[in-house]
Amino acid sequence: MSYRLVLTTVSSLREAKRLSRMLLEKRLAACVNISAPVESHYWWKDKKERAREVMLFIKTRATLFSKLEKVIRRSHSYAVPEIIEIPILKGNRAYLNWIKKETA
After folding, report:
1. Which residues contact 103 (CB under 8 A, 6 or more apart)?
2. Cα dihedral 42, 44, 46, 48 sign
3. Are 67 and 13 in contact (CB under 8 A)?
4. From CA 50, how far away is CA 7, in angstroms rounded?
């Protein structure tokens, strides 16, 4: 079984909580950590930008990534949302089993 950490940023705590609830209710995530605020510096339309955002750390199974990505894309407020999938190479076996159980 392969597991993933998925990262996304959103514009507000309200949006983060709404997206978190949605992913948990659909069993696409076992856990979503919400961290705020984060300050992002980036290029957008040939201009340097800065924004205060909220970061979500989403724990899931690799096989659920496509569905999870679709939900984020459909409900995200950004035109180009950050959706980054990071493989979890090793971890506490009991925790990984818990992710498996909660996303089944």
Report:
1. 27, 28, 29, 30, 60, 61, 64
2. negative
3. no
4. 19
> What span, in angstroms and rounded, lies between the C-alpha atoms of 56 and 52?
13
Residues in the chain: 104
pTM: 0.96
Residue type, 63: T
The residues near 75 (Cβ < 8 Å, ≥ 6 apart) are 18, 19, 22
For the segment 46-72, what is each residue's pLDDT rounded down to a tens digit?
999 999 999 999 999 999 999 999 999
- Cα–Cα distance list, 73 to 37, 40, 53 (Å): 22, 20, 17
